[in-house]
Amino acid sequence: TDIGCARVLAPGDCNTCAVHRFLYSVEREYAHPIEKLWAAWTSAEALESWYHPTILQSVPGLTQSDARVGGNWAVAVDVPMNDFVAYFFGWYKAVEPLRRIEHSMSYTQSRDEFDQRNPDAPAHDIVIEFEPRDGGSWCKFSQFGDLPEEMIEATIDGMNSYFDSLGMYLDEQN
Fold first, then answer.
1. Which residue ranges of the chain lie beneath pLDDT 70?
2. Which of 4, 155, 157, 165 is 20 to 30 A off residue 144, Cα-Cα?
3. Where are the alpha helices (DSSP H) in 43-137?
4. Helices 34-42 & 149-172, crossing angle to 10 degrees?
5. Helices (H) and strands (E) in the chain, counts
6. Vertex 22, ends 18 and 24: CA angle to 5°?
7. For residue 116, is it left (φ>0), alpha (ψ between -120 and 50) or beta?
8. How many angstroms separate the Cα of 104 from the Cα of each of 12, 168, 174?
């Protein structure tokens, strides 16, 4: 339940996000089995192929995913029209196969900061939920943290583009 500045959670619903401000969610159904959707979110090779807006690409060789509690993940997205690389990284806090992922997400434009992956870097919390659905599967990406109100709509648009990339990736895997 969204109550404006936080979510009221059922016991065990979220291990890490209850103390952070709910920012937004993006969800989508895909005509693919949940196992394929899960692998797209947890495999470094898959993440490198799709974890970017449709008009951009990931930087080859910089994506990591060790999808276990305490494992890290990292993706670098090339943004040539603005002459920078967007670096994202974090640590898995909860991994419930085919059901839920919780991880931190830090952002920087500094390759040195990306390479160092300081666990104390400012971060948002991410919760990704998965469900099998008739003829396919569903996932929901929720972000918690602090973000200027005027940036939330653009962030939602960006995440929708990531979900478009995910859909194209899944379709190409058939």
1. 1-20
2. 165
3. 44-50, 111-116
4. 120
5. 4, 8
6. 145
7. alpha
8. 18, 25, 31
6-7-13 Cα angle (round to 5): 140
- Structure-block tokens of residue 161: 């583009």
What CA–CA distance (Å, rounded) separates 163 from 140? Answer: 10
Residues 105-147: tens digit of each pLDDT: 999 999 999 999 999 999 999 999 999 999 999 999 999 999 8
Alpha helices of the chain — where are they, by DSSP H? 34-42, 44-50, 111-116, 149-172
C-alpha pair distances (Å), 109 with each of 23, 49, 87, 117: 22, 20, 6, 12
Return d(Cα 57, Cα 108) in angstroms, integer.
17
CA distance linking residue 107 with residue 79, whole number of Å: 14
Distance CA 169, CA 73 (A): 19
Q: Do 25 and 159 touch, CB atoms closer than 8 A?
A: no
Q: Distance (Å, rounded) from C-alpha 39 to C-alpha 12?
A: 24
pTM as predicted: 0.87
Helix (H, G, I), strand (E, B) or coil at 45: helix
